[in-house]
Structure formats: C-alpha cells, structure tokens
User: What shape does this take?
Amino acid sequence: MSRARIVLLNAALGPLDYRVPHGMTVEPGQIVVAPLGPRPMVGVVWDEGSFPDLPTVGDNRLRPLLDVLDAPPLPAPLRRLIEWTADYYLAPIAAVLRMALASMSALEGGKTVIEYRQTGVLPERLTPQRAQALERIGERQGLVRELAAIGGVTDAVIRGLVKQGALEAVEVSTDLPFPEPDPDHVHVALSAEQQAAADRLVAHVADRHFQAVLLDGVTGSGKTEVYFEAIAQALRQGDQSLVLLPEIALTEPFLDRFAKRFGDVPVAWHSGLKQSERRRAWRAISRGEARVVVGARSALFLPYPRLGLIIVDEAHETSFKQEEGVRYHARDVAVMRGLMEQIPVALASATPAIETRHQVELGRYEEIKLPARYGGAELPEIVGIDLTRDPPDRGRWLAPQLVQAIRETLERGEQSLLFLNRRGYAPLTLCRHCGYRFQCPNCSAWMVEHRLTRRLACHHCGHTIPTPDACPECHESDALVACGPGVERIADEVKALFPEARTAIVTSDTLWSPARAAAFVRDMAGGAIDIIVGTQLVTKGYHFPELTLVGVVDADLGLDGGDLRAAERTFQQITQVSGRAGRGEKPGRVFIQTRAPGVPVMEALLHGDEAAFYAAETASRRAANAPPFGRFAAIIVSDTDAALAQETARRIGQAAPRQEGLDVYGPAEAPLAVLRGRHRYRLLVHARRSVDLQTIVRGWLSGLDWKSSTRVSVDVDPYSFV
Ligand code: ADP
Ligand code: ZN
Ligand code: ZN
Assistant: This one.
C-alpha cells in the first residue's frame, strides 16, 4: 500500500489520506504518527474503501507518514465497533477512537517510568504543606503530579520533598506481566439451577458465536458465581473476558471475590488508575496477556485481540449511560461489540431494563433465570409505611415504626441500612428572615449543605462556598434554615436516637476511591458498623450477611422529576436496595416510607408483583410510542450568552425536517436552564422505529451553522431529560 487512510486523534477532522514512505509497511489498525500542519499527531490506519465519500488527492500531493508505533494494530472488529458507535451516536470518529487509545503513554512503548515513595526521612524544614503531603501520601507511590494531587499540594512541594530526601525515585516497569487467573483454583459446587444456567453460558463461550443473554436472577441468587463459570471456560480456551461494572466503587470488592475463585485478581480498568497502571494495563490488554479485565464503561473500547466473553453486571444501571463527550450507552455498545466479535454477551440483573426485557420478548436475547436466592435464603419481607398516617415526629424523617425496627435490629446485633438518594445534609438552605435561597451562581440549582465539610455545594458543577453564618441578603445572623433531608441529616437523627450505635455515611463523598470502598466493605464484614446511611451507591452488588434491615427513607423522591423512566427507576432502585437485606441465614425486613402507597410502582413493590408492574409499564410505553417502541434523540443547545443559545435553538427548530413518523418538540428552556454558566435549550426528536433517525438528524444539523461559542450536542436514546 503506497497510500493509507488515517483517522487522526482530532475530533474536528475527518479521515485523511497520507503517503506511506519507502521502507515502511502498514496494515489497517496500525497506530501511526502523521504530520498535521507543523505538528505530528497519532492516528490509526483505517481500511481501504472505508469513508468512500472522501475526495481523492493525487499521490504526489500526499504528505508522508512519520512513524509506526510499537503497539499491536487495532483489531478489525474493534474498528467496526468504532465506526458503528460514531455513526449511531452521531459522534466524531476520532472521539470514539480516543477511547480505544486511552493511554497515550502506552503507545510510546514498554518503558520504565519513575515514581516516588516515602523514605521515612523527614525534611529539614517540615512546613505544614510538606507535613500534609507526607501524611496523605502514606504508603502510596506515584508520579510527581499524582502525589501532588493526593497530597493536595503543588508539584513544587513534592519536588522539594524529593530534594530533601523525604521521597525517593523508584523505577517501575510498565511491561511487568499480570498474574494468570486459574480457572480451576477452587471448585464451587453450584445448585442445580445455577449449574443449568452456567452450562448454557459456558456452551455459548465454547461455541464462540454471538448471543446476547439476559441473566435474570433475583438479588442473592448467585449470578456472579454463574458467570464466573463462563469466565473459567474463556480462560481454558485462551480467550479474554471483560466484566463491566456500573461503579468504580464496586471494583475492589469484585477483585477480592474474583481472587478467591481464580487465585489472583483480574486487571482493573477505570478512571482512578495511575498513569503507570493505565499504561501497563493497556499494553497487556492489547497484547492479549490481560486475560480478564474488570472495569467501568470505558473498558469497552480497549483493543482486546482475543475477546471471548463480555459480562455487563447490574446491567440495568443508568450509570452505563455516558452523559458527556461521546454519549453512548455501554450496555448497548457491549451487545454491539459482541456482535462484531461474534462472542456471547451476558447482561446480569435482578431488575432488567424494559428495553432488555423487550429484546427477550422479541426472541433476540436469550433469557436465563435464577428465580431463588442461593442456599435457601428468603427474599426479605416488605412493609410499607404510609407517611400521611404514621408520620415521623416534627423535624424528623424516620417514622416510629422504622425507628422501632432499627432498635430491634441493633438489639439483635445485626446491621441496618437506611437509603436516601441525596448527598449532603439538606438540599436547600433559606433565610427565615427575608426568604433568600442559596442558588449556584453557575447553574439553576440550589446549593446543597454539606455539614461534614462545612460547605454549600452545587451538585451539578461542583461550585462550593463555606457555609455562611449570616444571610448574605439581609445580614441577619442565625436566620438560615436547612430544608429537607440528605443522608447527613438522617445520620444525625440516627445518632440522636441511638447514640451508642456505630453509624457510617456511604456516598460518593465518603467512598471516593476504590481503597475507601474496600475499607468500608471490611468494616461492614468485620461488624464495625451498625447502621449505614447511604445513597444509591449502597444499592449495588454488596453482600453483607448480617444486614437484615433496610429502610427506604423517601421512596417517592425519584418519582418527582416525572421523566419517562421515573417509575421504572424507582422500582429498580428500591428492589435493589431491598435486595441487600437478609442475604445470609437471617431473614431480612424492608420498610418503605411513602406518601403515595397507592401509586402502581409502590403497589408493585409492596406486593412483590414485579410481572404486573413490568406489563403495565411496557403497555404504557407502547401506547406512548416511547422506547423501546419508538425512539428519542435530544438536541441540546448551550451558550454562555442566553440570547445566542435561544436564537440558535430557534433556528434549529425552524429547520426541523417534516416527515411522517417523526415529531420535533421544542425548543424549550431545559429544566436545568443554566449549567456551568451556560444557558441551555432542548429539542426532543421523537421517531418511529422505522425512521432512520440518525441520518435525518445528521442531515438536518449539517445544513446549519452557529457561532463557535455555541455548543450543539445530540443525545441519541437519552436517559437524562434535564
Ligand atoms: P447476586 O449477584 O445474584 O446478587 P451473588 O453472586 O452475589 O448474588 O451471590 C450471593 C451470595 O451467595 C454470595 O456470597 C455468594 O458467594 C453466595 N453463593 C452463591 N452461589 C453459591 C454457591 N454455589 N456456593 C457457595 N456460595 C454461593
Ligand atoms: Zn435574609
Ligand atoms: Zn452549579
């Protein structure tokens, strides 16, 4: 090949043709360096014949490629997946490609990097900054930049510590091999039901063909044990396996559990990795040496050369939907990768999404059921508390019946979990004297009080201010009141009621790293915690045998926004959190506090009538032609200038295509009208299945232009409607 079609890592550009200089040979998928203007840039050789619309440039006008990097070529199925993702989600192909080449440093080849760690020697001058850095760094090791971030200091402070001999350099090889998991490390005796489920999955792995499978098992049924058998089969036949988890906080407990079964940990991939870890993982994955990878959604686009199995655990979780950059849904892309690779993909869940159930009904996905908990554990008893009849005391949030249940649980030496999906102390602070409300200066959102850190914080943009003593408007002191509860407020109430109990708050504020999550799991397992107060973070995956009581503080909270999936999400979340109760030998109880015990989703939860709920939800989606029957795409227009945003949105709306089976709503101001200082307008496109939504939207928007300050993004199959 004397010329090559290259996709460069520049989202503003399409593919470009280059000349392959004498003495260089390239093949599709190879990672190369090409000149772009005065600068060299990394790109990937694409297949001849792809992008047929590209104008042909004469050979003599092409610039030559500069270099071929020492990394395996991206496999063909991955190239097809990248094309599909860019096409389906209307994203620049370079932006998708970037997710595959997620470690730029790995592309430089297997090298050693220099990290630093403590020597135990104290610097001559121990400034407060230096002391803080050393204390926070502890046993950790990392690049200067990484240690500065851990220590909360500047790079200069870290370099000072190196000069003073308090930190020393360590050479780390990024090609150190990973341990090989052993499929026969221990033999797990499966129940008959589990064995039947495992056999089916194993057969698909052995066949090496595409099959999407819904592993539909109640909480505690042993879905993990079952899919471990499929991973064991992939290991035996030399294939790589990928396990996607919805939350990096779940990685650490998963690694432990995996190590018990397979003798060693799998390779982890998530945003919390250090640069050297990323580089080592990427290289091992791309060479096929990382045999089992567990990770967040971004692990999906890595260049596995011998992928044999994909598992999406807790597949109903909406955190699989990426809301920034390339707005893709990892569950759906996982199935597509399975198709490209011709391998099985298993979606494991106790509360599958309606979209997934629908695929089963259509016969596209195979369903494997595990209807009972493992080892004879019973599903918990569920009790509703009607807050309109049995209200908490004034200024409190826990009804007497729930308080009594917590007391009984404590007396038995068992553990309780109180669930409220709201971080912080109170969602709104206002002035009793003049009515002033604290709002984020960058977003149309209230500032949430966090008492633990004594700050008010915006949960949308991260803006924080110290909690003031007086009202900024009328300057009255002692006039600020907290409205409504967050987990910190519930924890205060619990401490007042049960001063002797050991209470832990579990949110992304307290479990912000895999290490913190691991410490929490240890404390729970070791019985060092009596009562957890937590957000949706505790609804997922955890298994604590001594946890026998779950209290849902405000079951109606998720129904407020009223979006398409509000009822479904409420059902899933409460079923999942209930599923944490009574997983061991002791029976579990669940109390659900609600003001609306009569609405269908509450009825379904209280009577355990899942099938009826799904049937009713599915019927109403069908009637509204909502997903999975019809399809949506959102167009979000934003600008720091409100008038400009509105004007662009209006022009886009005026140019909307008129077509049978396609409706365009809006533009309207977004519910979150200002976000990070940008004013936002939304249009919603609603289409029948038969309509080629992407082609229409692409054609529609490509005919328009707008100021460079204006951002127009398309969200295909949106999950968020703010
Ligand atoms: P799920 O993911 O379906 O909620 P898990 O896979 O976490 O369920 O299993 C629940 C608990 O039961 C775990 O502690 C697991 O180790 C245990 N368990 C499940 N199946 C078996 C088995 N066949 N042998 C021993 N323990 C099992
Ligand atoms: Zn005031
Ligand atoms: Zn904000």
